[in-house]
Amino acid sequence: MATNHFQSLNEYVYAIQQSIGATAASTYIIQNDVVVNEWYSGTHEASDASRLVDEKTQFNVASIRKTYLALAVSLLIEQGKIGSVDDEIGQYLNDYKDAARGVTLRHLLTHTHGLIEENGKITREFPAGYGWAYRNTGIGMLFQLVRHISGQNLSSFMASHVFNQYGLKETGWRTKAAEQLIYNYYDDEDTWVGPNDSDAGDQSNLFVSARDLAMWGHMHLKNGNIKGKQLLPQPVFARVTSLHTPLTVPSHLPRNGFIWWLQSDTPLNQIGELLPSDAYQVLGITGCACLVIPSCDAVVVRMYNQLQDSSGYDYLYDIRKFGNMAYDLLRSRCSMIQGNIIKKTITSLRQRLEAGDGLLSLQLREGELYEAKCTFRPPAREEDLMLFQEKLGCKLPQDYLIFLRITNGCSLFDHPEYGGEAYLYGWQDTFGVTYEEPNEGYLKVAYIYQDDIVIHLKAFNEGSDHYLMVKGHIDQFYDARPMHMNFEQWFDRFIICQGEKYWNWPIYNA
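Below the sequence we write its predicted structure tokens.
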């Protein structure tokens, strides 16, 4: 289901596939619960006779497996079998009471434990909670924890508690080659994915198809609720993608949930700098990645079968660029969809006015009949909108710009004789009406019966699609409350409600 909209992203992934010597690649994107991009490239092995990569192909996802371990820990917390993320590991595993004294589950899940195993002995690189290092020592302890508490190894636990419920049939720890598996990782005895002689979940041999990995991300995005069914409790998922890095960890080091990387302005961060603050991601050494962007309602998956380090390849630059490109394309796709609704709403309103000789017949509360008129201005010029954004020093939401391109302000639902108090400003009007404190970062776009509709510019430019706010006309901007929607949603609902201030309706009257 590759679409032209994501062609540039697929081409970028293909170029990297060639440069790192991967025989296989794939991208899979879900947005608004719909698969919007599905693309496959290459073969399972370098041989021309090898199987083509397709939707059934399963890749070794390497360290992405650790997020499955993280969910198991979260589920055990939810079941009450683990008391707290701040319990010491030695409280559950006696073997580590002394060697890991002071090390909590939080430290293990956020790579801040400071433990390293050398020659069979556990030593410390730094005090727990005061540094960050990506080590498998803590992962091994967490695997033992799940087995000890649940009585099952990780593979069995996940199959019985998660995989079966969510239909993840193309996910599992594999020890033998099979038609649907890319298995050339093990042609080299010194393969960097490690051994694969155990199906218990304790090795880096988790194989997943692109669509199953996208579903894994989608489960987290929706907090476990798929198609209206809450198959596991919402906190199980919300917990693993919330910030858990101890406050004592220096600010220049990465931030993690339960294993998942969270957006942060740090040198080692794997998430592109353009992505919003709610983004989280996991990456494996084979090149596979799962990126979740809640503010775009999207999951982005990339798959490779990278077998070795490639000269000149900068994995951090690559994964950041991949994320930035995906985010830009997702936002532009949203803008195109939003623009259609704006156009349809205004077109329908104008058609109703023409049919009524310039008047709308409305039925309001308690059966009141009312005639109203609407007045639209000429569209804003493109050069004026560019100047508008230059003066503001930031970009404006596409749905709002599309509105201005259709009509540079308008009056809605006015009384034919006495006028009204529902008008949306033209771009040049906004500077004169935006004067409250704090003056920067907010833009008044409409005045509706003593209420101001406001765009929170900072929120939008940080990636939020829920950037609209409302305040009383005499109030300051710091009194504004979020409306949890964008301009297009507000405008469409305002028209549907025929000029009523629906945002003030009590739920029981709405």
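The mean pLDDT is 92.
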